[in-house]
């Protein structure tokens, strides 16, 4: 058991031997191993030197999801998925280090001066339990005006073969935007979703707040979310994946992104209040 910090990352080790690694750059969880099996995909071509957002792991998306909106100006000037995934965070505290879990809290630096909104505090708590990995994003508004944002945990779940997985938990009637089809809106049919084409869908307000991924080999994951209401499902397949400079060849076959978030609209956080978005991934 324990928490070890190197110059680049924090490594959590549970009594059962499972481990998790969190890069300070972006507070990106880059690895979660249970019984020697890696559950988080990290591209072999990912930049791990702070020169670009990490391709794979669990990047933290905030305060915008996707390309910047046209206004207001400080949001319009942001890069895709915002700044948290490319800031260098600090280990704030070890919250727990025992059988029930090993848990650390990281703190983000203040937002870039060009964004303003310096009165925002962001913390991230990562907890490694027996067969679970829990991540909680805390956003506190210490300012005097409402603060609006989007947030999402861009989780790359490792799978043996993406073409054989099935994704369930999104009920019939849930509306989604299909970004592959230019953002057209549809209603989910229910049942299971498979990766038989490029997927880039933003599902809004999923009542179950849980998505299951069956890996086609009697294993998989349950991704439960609280505070977050939406989820993006993304796999670029070869069609788009082969055009990504930091994606290893064939990498798109080895993961599915299930990304709980608050992204179908803006979250407005009143002064003095805190938002917590939580993701719990359980091995099944
Ligand atoms: O290349 P990035 O900025 O890490 O984004 C990866 C993907 O992230 C997903 O969440 C988006 O829905 C996709 O549209 C996007 O391509």
Automatic annotation (TrEMBL):
SUPFAM superfamilies: Galactose mutarotase-like. One of its GO terms (molecular function) is carbohydrate binding. Substrate binds at residues 55, 80, 85. It comes from the Eukaryota. The keyword Isomerase applies. It catalyses: alpha-D-glucose 6-phosphate = beta-D-glucose 6-phosphate. Gene3D superfamilies: 2.70.98.10. This is Glucose-6-phosphate 1-epimerase.
């Amino acid at each position: 058991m324990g928490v070890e910090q190197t110059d680049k990352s924090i490594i959590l080790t549970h009594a059962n031997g499972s481990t998790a690694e969190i890069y300070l750059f972006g507070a990106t969880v880059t690895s979660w191993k249970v019984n020697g099996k890696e559950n988080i995909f990290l591209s072999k071509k990912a930049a791990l030197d702070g020169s670009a957002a990490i391709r794979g792991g669990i990047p933290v998306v905030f305060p915008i999801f996707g390309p910047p909106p046209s206004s207001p100006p400080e949001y319009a000037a942001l890069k895709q998925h915002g700044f948290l995934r490319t800031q260098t965070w600090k280990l704030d505290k070890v919250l727990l280090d025992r059988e029930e879990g090993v848990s650390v809290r990281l703190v983000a630096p203040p937002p870039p001066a060009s964004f303003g909104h310096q009165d925002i505090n962001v913390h991230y708590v990562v907890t490694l339990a027996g067969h679970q990995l829990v991540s909680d994003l805390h956003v506190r508004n210490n300012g005097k005006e409402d603060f609006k944002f989007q947030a999402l945990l861009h989780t790359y779940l490792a799978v043996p073969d993406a073409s054989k997985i099935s994704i369930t938990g999104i009920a019939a009637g849930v509306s989604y935007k299909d970004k592959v089809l230019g953002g057209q809106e549809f209603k989910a049919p229910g049942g299971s979703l498979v990766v038989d084409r490029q997927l880039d869908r933003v599902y809004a307000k999923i009542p179950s707040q849980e998505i299951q991924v069956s890996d086609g080999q009697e294993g998989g994951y349950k991704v439960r979310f609280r505070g977050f209401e939406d989820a993006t499902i993304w796999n670029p397949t070869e069609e788009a994946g082969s055009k990504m400079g930091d994606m290893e060849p064939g990498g798109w076959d080895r993961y599915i992104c299930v990304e709980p978030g608050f992204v179908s609209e803006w979250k407005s956080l009143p002064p003095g209040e805190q938002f917590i978005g939580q993701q719990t991934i359980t091995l099944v």
